[in-house]
Each structure stands twice: as C-alpha cells, then as structure tokens.
Design a protein that fits this description.
alpha/beta, Glutaredoxin, 5-stranded mixed β-sheet, 7 strands, about 40% helix, about 25% strand, Thioredoxin-like_sf, SCO family protein, metal-binding, SCO1/SenC, copper
Length: about 140
C-alpha cells in the first residue's frame, strides 16, 4: 500500500505528491506490470469535515483508476493519523469561513501485513519512487 494523508482542498502539495505517485505507477505499468499489480495507492483525508465519500471519489479518480480515497469520522481520522504519526492542523483566518490544513506530506509504503517498508518525501522524483517500488515490492 502507498498511503498518503492530505485533503482535497489542498492548493499545492497534495496534488503535486499524488501526481508524482501517479507518474511512478505509470512507469511501473510500462516497466514492471507485475509489480504494479501488487500496489494499492490510498489517499486518506485529514479533513473529514469537507472530504465526504463523494468528494474523495471524484478527487482521487483524477489521479488514476487505481487510487482509493478514504474518509471517516473525526475520531477515525485522528486514530489513523496517530497510528502513522501524521501531523495536521486547521489554519483559519479570523472572520473567514475558509481554512487550510497544515500537514505532513510523506507517502508511506506499507507491506500487505501493515508493516512499514519505507517512506517517500515530497522531493522524491517519480522515477526514484518507481525504482524503489520495483526493488521493495516482491
């Protein structure tokens, strides 16, 4: 599993990171389709107030058909963030109903049994991610 925590209203880092993951999966589709078949990209919201199931589905399908979007209650999302040690915090200007979410931005590669394998930071290039996935996913 490639697991990324973010939110659909994110103006910059989330779409860039998800595009990178999509590009890495495209590389695997061309170079190592057997490896690609073993990978499930998952986008977990940190903003369940706005990221409903329908919003999540529409958002993740923009990055490819393999992506799954997960949302839930605030308590469920908080438990998932705690398990992965994900930071997030609402940032809202006084007098405005709009807000952004400050958050960590890494993609976790997890084994089928849930064990941690490695992490990809925002600076990781798609080819490096694809090469690492080929090497780590058996």
């Amino acid at each position: 599993m490639l697991i990324y925590f973010g939110y659909t209203f994110c103006p910059d880092v989330c779409p860039i990171d998800l595009q990178r993951t999509a590009a890495a999966l495209k590389i695997l589709e061309e170079q190592a389709p057997a490896t690609l078949d073993k990978i499930q990209p998952i986008f977990v919201t940190i903003d369940p107030e706005r990221d409903t199931p329908d919003v999540m589905k529409a958002y993740v399908t923009a990055f490819g058909p393999r992506f799954v979007g997960l949302t839930g209650t605030v308590a469920q999302i908080d438990a998932a963030k705690k398990a992965y040690r994900v930071f997030s915090q609402k940032r809202q200007d006084a007098g405005s109903s709009d807000y952004l979410m400050d958050h960590s931005s890494v993609t976790y590669l997890m084994a089928p049994n849930g064990d941690y394998v490695t992490v990809f930071g925002s600076e990781t290039k798609a080819q490096v991610m694809a090469d690492t996935l080929k090497a780590k996913v058996e």
